[in-house]
Design goal:
heterodimer, A: 313 residues, mainly alpha, two-stranded antiparallel sheet, 14 helices, globular, B: 318 residues, ABC transporter involved in vitamin B12 uptake, BtuC, 2 strands, 1% strand
């Protein structure tokens, strides 16, 4: 009976139940939460992590991991802000630069993984350090300024709908479709479930892993630009720590850390839970340190409820 | 003929399991070309001293990873230990011993919590220990109030940074003793054998009567304990007791453990390889700073070294 109740509330869709509960709690007990401005704010704030976590879902589903994305966000934010220096004319070139830098660093990760065959955690940790070095060689303080377009996309809304929400929805539906409805998505999850079997079944496992890292890098590029848009400038530590939040969100959402199973809706629900929890605690004026403790307990409680099964590392 | 084949296999296995020692020798050879000072015993002892915080922490994480676990909370525990130890000492020499003891107990308690949660729920230790890390950072912040707090007692740093008989640095000795203790635990005790059994095949281990929960809890507790010692060593080396003193150390430690031959799949590797890997990383960092590079360039080269050393290790193993 206990198992059945758990299955109904917390089985596959457990994270969505948890999201519903936290929304009800927030609306019932925190009056300011209901204010439309606040809801727009929550959505805008969570967009950066959402974009990053969508990319991380691909690598984790393929049985890989990408620790380099947080620092990659910082590098992209610094580069595009420095290029634009507040000029609208350079917004489009800066956007292209952000996409190009993000995607190519992601592909470098993929190529190195395929050639050197070292553990993805170690490889991308090494890359994190390399990117940190490059970013701080470029600048050790905030640099440049984003154009008004970037500010508007990151924080503005049209007819009550935040632009960043539209971006997240478009990216998430594309990603969901790619994972669940295309050959690439099935192959990706097959590689994550058992690479050797996938290879013997004729799947181009190296190609799949390369593309997965490319997608992760692209998402880090986009997230870095959103973050720069929110901050208004290129801060070399802007993305620090985002990689761990993204991994937490992906795994809480129900994508297996051992690979082989991916869920974009789950990832988004987990991102929203983290964002709403932190917004609630802000509105309740809990000090920042207390918030960290609460956030940690939320993460542990959520995995105890959703991940209760024999899990690999 | 059969004997020859057996010997070949044996040699190959030796090479595979101890690949990191060859990487270490290779690196020492390169370093010796740069300066003969790298081959002096005093240099190696000094490197061990530098490596003490990462090395001591890595010993505990190695034990956890042998049984197919992982502990990402060690960076947070290092920070907590540095702050807690400084706060407890409060600048008084007679507080040193109780402060060190209480700090170790706190670290072990966090490890115990990790161990109980992993052992009795079978959840992913990767995410669980990330969650614990967030909580521990929060607690450290509350305790420190966000700034560097606590006063290191006189004599604390002097003793731990001193040399016994003017030769052997105390922190190097601490690392060597902890490594010997780790090797003793892993290779001669029932606990150590159980680690390898669980790591190779948890189900088989359970069926054959290994008390896997007890072993897991003990391993995570030791990991928390070692991380607390690592934090105390860091406090002795730097004197800094800020909330994020140990931030990022978990990945340095992980890089060392994996490079040392203890894989994420568990069941193999050991403390010896981890110590060799720690030496590889720190000798490489020393080479980089000897070249007179700025800090950002050092970060860049550090990343490259981690990637290249792991690649060399994989190549030798194959």
């Amino acid at each position: 009976m206990r198992e059945r109740i758990r299955a109904i509330f917390l089985g596959g869709g457990g994270i969505h139940t948890a999201l519903a509960i936290i929304i009800v709690l927030a609306t019932a007990f925190v009056p300011e939460f209901r204010h439309p401005d606040n809801i727009v704010n929550v959505l805008n704030q969570s967009a950066t992590l959402a974009v990053l976590a969508i990319g991380q879902t691909f690598v984790i589903a393929a049985g890989l991991i990408d620790l380099s994305v947080g620092q990659l966000m910082s590098l992209v934010a610094v580069l595009i802000s420095d290029l634009m220096a507040g000029r609208s004319a350079l917004a489009l070139p800066a956007f292209c630069l952000g996409i190009a830098v993000g995607t190519s660093i992601g592909l470098v990760n993929g190529v190195l993984l395929n050639i050197l065959r070292i553990h993805p955690l170690i490889l991308t940790f090494g890359m994190l350090s390399v990117l940190q070095g490059i970013t701080f060689l470029y600048t050790d303080r905030s640099i440049g300024q984003v154009s008004p377009e970037f500010l508007r996309v990151a924080s503005g809304s049209f007819a009550g709908i935040p632009f960043s929400l539209v971006i997240v929805i478009v990216l998430a539906s594309t990603a969901h479709g790619a994972l669940q409805r295309t050959r690439f998505g099935w192959h990706l999850q097959a590689v994550g479930a058992n690479e050797e079997n996938a290879r013997r079944a004729g799947i181009n496992t190296r190609g799949i892993k390369l593309v997965a890292y490319g997608i992760s890098g692209l998402s880090a590029g986009l997230a870095g630009m959103l973050l720069a848009g929110r901050l208004g400038t290129g801060y070399p530590n802007a993305g620090s720590g985002f990689e761990l939040d993204a991994i937490v969100a992906v795994v809480l959402g129900g994508t297996s850390l051992a690979g082989g199973r991916a869920t974009i809706p789950g990832t988004l629900a987990a991102v929203l839970i983290l964002a709403i929890a932190s917004n609630m605690l802000n509105l309740l004026e809990v000090p920042a340190f207390g918030q960290m403790v609460v956030k940690g307990f939320i993460v542990i409680a959520a995995i105890l409820l959703t991940q209760r099964r024999a899990a690999a590392v | 003929m059969k004997h020859v084949a057996l010997d070949l296999n044996f040699g190959r296995r030796m090479l595979q399991e101890h690949a990191v020692w060859f990487v270490l020798l290779l690196l020492l050879a390169v370093a010796a070309l740069v300066s003969s000072a790298f081959l002096r015993p005093s240099y190696l002892l000094n490197t061990l001293r530098q490596a003490a915080p990462v090395g001591i922490t890595a010993i505990g994480v190695t034990l956890v990873m042998i049984l197919r676990g992982v502990d990402l909370s060690v960076g947070a525990v290092i920070s907590l230990a540095a702050v807690l130890c400084a706060v407890l000492m409060d600048g008084q020499a007679h507080n040193i011993a109780p402060a060190i003891a209480l700090t170790c107990i706190a670290g072990a308690a966090i490890g115990l919590a990790n161990g109980l949660l992993v052992a009795f729920n079978r959840i992913s230790p990767f995410i669980l220990t990330l969650g614990t890390a967030i909580i521990v950072y929060g607690l450290t912040q509350i305790q420190s109030g966000g700034t560097a707090r606590g006063i290191v007692a006189p004599g604390f740093r002097e003793f731990l940074n001193g040399r016994i008989g003017g030769v052997l640095p105390v922190l190097s000795l601490a690392l060597i003793l902890m490594a010997l203790l780790g090797i003793f635990l892993q290779s001669t005790t029932r606990f150590g054998r159980s680690l390898y059994l669980i790591g190779s095949n948890p189900d088989a281990a359970e069926l054959s009567g290994v008390p896997i929960r007890r072993v897991m809890v003990l391993a995570y507790t030791l990991s928390g304990f070692c991380a607390a010692l690592g934090g105390i060593a860091l406090l002795a080396r730097t004197g800094v007791s800020s909330t994020y003193a140990g931030r990022g150390y978990e990945f340095d430690v992980l890089a060392a453990v994996v490079l040392g031959g203890t894989t994420f799949a568990g069941g193999r590797g050991g403390v010896g390889g981890t110590i060799a890997a720690v030496l590889v990383l720190f000798i490489a960092f020393n080479l980089v700073s000897l070249a007179g590079l700025q800090f950002p360039a050092q970060l860049l080269v550090k990343g490259a070294i981690i990637i290249v050393a792991s690649a060399a290790y994989e190549a030798i193993k194959r």
